[in-house]
Structure formats: structure tokens, C-alpha cells
From TrEMBL:
GO cellular component, one term: cytosol
Annotated EC: 2.7.2.3
PANTHER family, sorted: PHOSPHOGLYCERATE KINASE (PTHR11406), PHOSPHOGLYCERATE KINASE 1, CHLOROPLASTIC-RELATED (PTHR11406:SF23)
Name of the gene encoding the protein in the UniProt record: pgk
Amino-acid positions noted as binding ATP in the UniProt annotation, renumbered to this chain: K208, G299, E330, G356, G357, D358, S359
Binding-site residues, (2R)-3-phosphoglycerate: R39, R121, R158
Catalyses which reaction(s): (2R)-3-phosphoglycerate + ATP = (2R)-3-phospho-glyceroyl phosphate + ADP
CDD domains referenced in this protein's UniProt entry, alphabetically: Phosphoglycerate_kinase (cd00318)
Family assignment from sequence similarity: Belongs to the phosphoglycerate kinase family.
Official protein name in the record: Phosphoglycerate kinase
InterPro entries for the chain: Phosphoglycerate_kinase, Phosphoglycerate_kinase_CS, Phosphoglycerate_kinase_N, Phosphoglycerate_kinase_sf
Length: 400
């Protein structure tokens, strides 16, 4: 892959695809504010390097999943402000993606100046599965710039216009973040020190259940927490109340459990669950056995015994990869499982990689020092798919 050092960027308009998909929370005075700016900070070095070399930098990114519609609550405007603070320079914000505002803002950039386009996913072409629709949008996006730099590692597993189709249309290079991420994750695909434990959680269950298929041939232990748990518990014949459930994946999960038993891979499932009457911090909640979740409750965290069990199963690991919080850590009553697993990684002394926007945010929010982990990756799904050995669209396009 070419790096930005291989591009002559001075005086050129350079489109940088970053991953600025940061968690937002309600601000005390109303509106939404950035809960964790880790992904913005991770994007700064490449943008700064391009500025210093006289590029006219046009940053593009997505926020959440607005599904091709303009939804003000998913605007990147707060991110533009934060990016400006971190760069110590003004970031001109375009109120659309490829419309009049984008053309005016990007056309008006001087050498070394930076602009951010509005949320790419306000445009249906960005995520379209139809090649022609995606291509038509990619043409318009590519038309804003002369060069392309891929640096949004967290989104490289998505075959989206800004990730895949635009680099096919412009001279391109990989930014420093992608280069660093790939360097570290490559170690986990080569000679991995064993026992190798993988911890999976979070809420993107349908996205991430599929990676287990491949992990069964690679990991020695797979620990399941977060929203993933309930499809496993249900597959074992237990009731899960109103918890997150992927009904259509029950057969797949049963097959995983069978294969694990046959091949000696250990699945570690929670033995207790924090179950609540509603998805709220102040809802009535308590610890129940994992096989006795009441019909009117939903599981929002792994319980204290599970936290101890997970830490024990990490203690002798030599390598640990963790993606996905163990519970709804954003709410204090459901943050303890995530805390126990983070501490378990630190205490293990293993080579530890934490991946994912929310997982990385969780360890910081819960007060853990980043230095306690070997690597904190900005990508969750992207890291998992990289570890599967899959060809990732955003990396493939940069290699071509
Ligand atoms: N039991 C659960 N039920 C619903 N949501 C959950 C549960 N456990 C964790 N979550 C949520 O999962 C989200 C993170 O999931 P995900 O996006 O898959 O992780 P990452 O961004 O680290 O890859 C968090 O916002 C957290 O609140
Ligand atoms: O947050 C992200 O991924 P992650 O939650 O797997 O870390 C990326 O920004 C990709 O977002 P997407 O999963 O909506 O395509």
C-alpha cells in the first residue's frame, strides 16, 4: 500500500476518509455532545501531516446509521468543532455531502486548510448495495478532490462508496492510522501466543456472530458477553425475556456450540445476568441466574459471578482480543461486567488488543489507562473481519 509520503499533496485537494463515528450523549443543557473523542484524536495525525505539506484537506466520515436520510441528530457538526479544537485550526463544515455547500466549502479551501463534509450516510448512494447507485455517488464525491487518502480503519470492512469506490477513481494512499492498525493486527493472524482468548460482546450481534465461524478454527477460548449472550442462552433452551435476540441465528449458534465441543474450543458463557424491567439506568434491576431470566425483564449486563469467571478464564491467556462491551456500560448499574473484563485483560499480562468504537470508549470512560492494554484499535467489526483473514474492501481498494 502506498502511504501519504508517496503522494505529492501540496496545493491539491485531498479527500480523507476518516472514521469519526463517535458515541454521543445528552448534554446537560439539551442537545447532544461527544461522549468520547478517541476516534477524532486518532484521525488527527494524518490530517495534520497533510496540512503541513500544504494539502487542501477534505475530511469525510459517517456517524451512526441514518440509513440514507438527513437526520439532524446524526449531524457531524459537533465533530467538526471538536476536530478544529484538536487541530488548533478552523475546520470549515459543509452542510451537505456533495451538494452546493460541499462544493463551495471545498472549492474555497486554501493550502493547509481543512473542511469536513456532512455525514456521508445522509446519502443513500454511500451504503447502497447497487453498484451503479453507489458508483454514481462515488463519482460526485471523487469530483470534490484530486487525491484520496483512506484512514478510517473502523469502516474498512464496509463496501461503501467513500471506502471502496472512491479510491478506485482517484490516485490514493493509506493514512498512518490504517498502517498502524494493520501492523498490530497482523501479529494476531501470524504466530499468535497461546492460549488465545477472544471476548465478544456489544450490540451489533447480527454483524458479529458470523466471525465466530472462523474464530472456532483460531481461538482456544471464546467468551461471550453483552448483547451476544441471549442468542446463545436461547440456543441452549433458556428463556431470555425481553433481551436482545437474533431469532434467525439460533440454528447457527447451536452449530457453533456443537463444533466447539467437537474441536475442544471452550465457549465461556455468563452464569448470571443483571436483568432490568426497562432499558434505563433507574429501572428496577437485579442479578438472576443466566438460565432464569424473568419473561418481563431484559439482560443489560453480565452478573458479578460471570465477571469473576471471565477474569479467571483470561488469567492464563497469552493473547486476548476483545470487542464489544459486556453490558450497557454507559449506565452505571450495567457497567460492572465491562469493568471486570477490562481488569481481567490488564491482570492477565497477555498481549491484549481492545477493538471497537464503544469498547475503546468504555475502557477510557471506566477510568482505565490506555497504557494498560497492548493496543486499542479504533475498529471493532473491522478488526474482527481482518482477524478472519477476509479481504476488506477498504484495504483492497487501497492496494490496487
Ligand atoms: N445486553 C445488552 N443489551 C443491549 N445493548 C448492549 C448490551 N450489552 C452491551 N450493549 C451495548 O453495545 C454497544 C456497543 O456495541 P458495538 O457497537 O457492537 O461495540 P464496538 O463499538 O466496541 O464494536 C454499547 O453501546 C452497549 O451499551
Ligand atoms: O463503529 C464502527 O464499528 P464498530 O462498532 O464495529 O467499532 C464503525 O464506525 C463502522 O460503523 P458501522 O458498523 O455502522 O458500519
Amino acid at each position: 500500500m502506498r502511504t501519504i509520503d508517496d503522494l505529492d499533496v501540496a496545493g491539491k485537494r485531498v479527500l480523507v476518509r476518516a472514521d469519526l463515528n463517535v458515541p454521543l450523549e445528552d448534554a446537560p443543557g439539551g442537545g447532544r455532545t461527544i461522549a468520547d473523542d478517541g476516534r477524532i484524536r486518532a484521525s488527527v495525525p494524518t490530517i495534520r501531516a497533510l496540512r503541513e505539506r500544504g494539502a487542501r484537506v477534505i475530511v469525510c466520515a459517517h456517524l451512526g446509521r441514518p440509513k440514507g436520510e438527513v437526520k439532524p441528530e446524526f449531524s457531524l457538526a459537533p465533530v467538526a468543532a471538536r476536530l478544529g479544537e484538536l487541530l488548533g485550526a478552523e475546520v470549515a463544515f459543509a452542510a451537505d455531502v456533495v451538494g452546493d455547500s460541499a462544493r463551495a466549502v471545498t472549492g474555497g479551501l486554501a493550502d493547509g486548510e481543512v473542511a469536513l463534509l456532512e455525514n456521508l450516510r445522509f446519502e443513500p448512494g454511500e451504503t447502497s448495495k447497487d453498484d451503479a447507485e453507489r458508483g454514481a455517488f462515488a463519482d460526485r464525491l471523487a469530483g470534490l478532490a484530486e487525491l484520496y487518502v483512506g484512514d478510517g480503519f473502523g469502516a474498512v470492512h464496509r463496501k461503501h462508496a467513500s471506502v471502496y469506490d472512491v479510491p478506485l477513481r482517484l490516485p490514493h494512499a493509506a493514512g498512518g492510522l490504517i498502517a498502524t492498525e494493520v501492523d498490530v493486527l497482523r501479529k494476531l493472524t501470524e504466530d499468535v501466543a497461546r492460549p488465545y482468548a477472544v471476548v465478544l460482546g456489544g450490540s451489533k450481534v447480527s454483524d458479529k456472530l458470523g466471525v465466530i465461524d472462523n474464530l472456532l478454527g483460531k481461538a482456544d477460548r471464546i467468551l461471550i458477553g453483552g448483547g451476544m449472550v441471549f442468542t446463545f442462552l436461547k440456543a441452549q433452551g433458556h428463556e431470555v425475556g425481553k433481551s436482545l435476540l437474533e431469532e434467525d441465528q439460533l440454528g447457527t449458534v447451536r452449530e457453533y456450540l456443537r463444533r466447539a465441543a467437537d474441536t475442544g474450543v471452550e465457549f465461556v458463557l455468563p452464569v448470571d445476568i443483571v436483568a432490568a424491567t426497562a432499558f434505563a439506568a433507574d429501572a428496577d434491576h437485579g442479578v438472576v441466574a443466566a438460565d432464569a431470566i424473568p419473561a418481563d425483564r431484559l439482560g443489560l449486563d453480565i452478573g458479578p459471578e460471570s465477571g469473576k469467571l471471565f477474569a479467571a478464564r483470561l488469567a492464563d491467556a497469552a493473547t486476548v482480543f476483545w470487542n464489544g462491551p459486556m453490558g450497557v456500560f454507559e449506565m452505571e448499574p450495567y457497567s460492572h461486567g465491562t469493568r471486570a473484563v477490562a481488569q481481567g485483560l490488564i491482570d492477565s499480562g497477555a498481549f491484549t488488543v481492545v477493538g471497537g468504537g464503544d469498547s475503546a470508549a468504555a475502557v477510557r470512560r471506566l477510568g482505565f489507562a490506555e497504557s494498560g492494554f497492548s493496543h486499542i484499535s479504533t475498529g471493532g467489526g473491522a478488526s474482527l473481519e481482518y482477524l478472519e483473514g477476509k479481504a476488506l474492501p477498504g484495504l483492497k481498494a487501497l492496494e490496487d
